[in-house]
Amino acid sequence: MKKFIFRSLIFVLVLALGAATGGYLALIRDIPKIDEIKGYLPVNGTRVYADDDSLIGEFKVEKGIYVPLTKIPEHLLRAVIAVEDSRFWQHKGIDYIAIVRAISKDILAGRIKEGASTITQQLTKVIFLSPERTVVRKIKEATLAFRLEKNLTKEEILELYLNKIYFGHGAYGVEMAARVFFGKAVSDLTLPEAALLGGLIKAPSRYSPYSDLDKAKARQHVVLNRMREEGYITKEEAEKAYKQPLHVSSMRYELYTQNYFLEYIRKHLEEEYGVEKTYKGGLKVYTTLNRKMQSAAVRALQSGLRDLDKRQGFRGPLEHRDISLKDEINGDKPFGKVVLREGDIMTATVLTVSDSQAVVRTKGFTGRIFLQDTTWAKKVIDSKGNLIRAFKYFRLPDILRSGDVIRVKVKEMAGNGPVFTLEQEPLAQGAVVAMEPATGHIKALVGGYDFSKSEFNRAVFAKRQAGSAFKPIIYAAAMDNGYTPASTIMDEPISYSTEQFGEWRPENYDKKYHGATRLREALAYSRNVVTIKLLEKMGVDRVIKFAGSLGIRGPLPYNLSLALGSLSVTPLELTSAFCVFAQGGMKMDPVAIKYIVDADRNVLENNQPNGGRVISPQTAFLATSMLEDVVKYGTARRAKGLGTVAGKTGTTNDYRDAWFIGYTPKVVAGVWIGFDNMRPLGARETGSKAALPVWMSFMQQAVSTDGAESGGGPFAAPDGIVTAVVDPLTGLLATDETEKMLEFFKEGTVPRAYSTKSQREAVRKKKAEFGEPETPEHEVD
Question: Which of these is catalytic: 84, 436, 772, 779?
Answer without folding.
Answer: 84
